[in-house]
Write a structure and sequence with these properties.
By secondary structure, the protein is an alpha+beta fold. It has helices at about 15-25, 35-40, 80-85, 85-90, 90-100, 105-110, 110-120, 125-130, 150, 230-235, 240-250, 265-290, and strands at about 5-10, 30, 50-55, 65, 70-75, 135-140, 145-150, 155, 160, 165-175, 180-185, 195-205, 210-220, 225. It has twelve helices and 14 strands. The structure holds flavin-adenine dinucleotide. Flavin-adenine dinucleotide (FAD) binds near residues 54, 110, 120, 124 and 125.
């Protein structure tokens, strides 16, 4: 099906995008890579009368390091994130998660900002951002504001972004020494979306015990969610295979699993535990060699 007709605008700057959003109110919608917006427009779930293209706004693209932070522009494509040497070095789990999104065509068009703003419950990057403790930067008519990632995802396809705001940047703090991160997903064989995906970041203390664990899941819950049961079970413990297994078994503790995801509860609990264990095991290996 074709989308409903709309007027196309190409913003040349963030200020212009914000002004166009303000001008068109509920009738305006940003487009970046278009790989989530266009499908919903073709299905007529979304019918914006004005589509505002931000893909060629120069200040929105690119990756740089500044003041202990990795700064990634919102329209940086998933392919660029996956292949960036800086990201592979600073946040390898982000590069590996971006590299497993859909297929090459999706990654060449899809952007990091579009992926986060769309907040698909089966998307990969929201869980990674939670595990990395990222901060998102939004700009709107009232100026710029930081949004800690823990406050960004508020429900199914819902974020803390106001309708008149542009997500401009993702800031990922450099990890402390002896930190390792990993992302593991069981992908839907047709789309690549996560049936379940677990992102884990583990920091080891001097004695080898887990000083800090940040673990988040996508796919099964209605929004990317920190796995606080897993984190609590591992923090302060030595990172042995048994401790990791015991912690991973708590993956669904306090997590509301979506009905839309098929199969029975025991299967989902096992899937969650297996992928949590795999992500934690690789994160710990990386922390040991960091
Ligand atoms: C076949 C297929 C397979 C896929 N597989 C996966 C997968 O395995 N894993 C995965 O994570 N994703 C997957 N995706 C989704 C893909 O990654 C999308 O590209 C991504 O979710 C959206 O990014 P985009 O740049 O295309 O955003 P768009 O489609 O352009 O926009 C999506 C939404 O975000 C808003 N938006 C975009 N940029 C901004 C911004 N800077 N500020 C505020 N709002 C903004 C738009 O208004 C729109 O509402 C798949 C998509 C398809 C079609």
């Amino acid at each position: 099906m074709y989308s409903a007709s709309f007027e196309y605008h190409r913003a040349g700057s963030v200020d212009e995008a914000v002004a166009l959003l303000a001008e068109h109110g509920d009738d305006g919608k940003l487009i970046a890579g278009g790989h989530s917006l266009l499908p919903v427009m073709k299905l007529r779930f979304s019918r914006p009368a004005h589509v505002i293209d931000i893909r060629r706004v120069p200040e929105l693209a690119g990756i740089r390091e500044e003041n202990g932070t990795l700064r990634i522009g919102a329209t940086t494509t998933q392919a660029v994130v996956a292949s960036s040497d800086v990201i592979r070095y600073r946040a390898p789990m982000l590069a590996e998660a971006a590299g497993r999104i859909g297929d090459a065509q999706i990654r060449n068009m899809g952007t990091i900002g579009g992926s986060l703003a769309h907040a698909d419950p089966a998307a990969d990057l929201p869980a990674v951002m939670l595990a990395l403790g990222a901060e998102l930067r939004a700009v709107g008519p009232r100026g710029a504001r930081p949004i800690p990632v823990g406050q960004f995802f508020v429900g199914l396809f819902s974020t803390a972004l106001a309708a008149d705001e542009v997500l401009v940047e993702v800031r990922v703090p450099f990890s402390p020494p002896r930190t390792g991160g990993a992302y593991e997903k069981y992908a839907d064989p047709a789309s690549g979306y996560a049936v379940v995906g677990v992102a884990a970041s583990v920091t080891l203390g001097d004695g080898g015990a887990v000083q800090r664990a940040r673990v988040a899941m996508t796919g099964l819950p209605s929004q990317a969610t920190r796995l606080t049961g897993v984190e609590a079970a591992l923090t302060g413990k030595s990172a042995t295979a048994d401790q990791i297994e015991a912690a991973a078994r708590r993956a669904l503790e306090g997590v509301e699993v979506r009905d839309a995801v098929g199969s029975d509860a025991a299967y989902k609990a096992n899937l969650a535990a297996v992928y949590a264990r795999r992500a934690l095991t690789r994160a710990v290996e990386r922390a040991r060699s960091a």
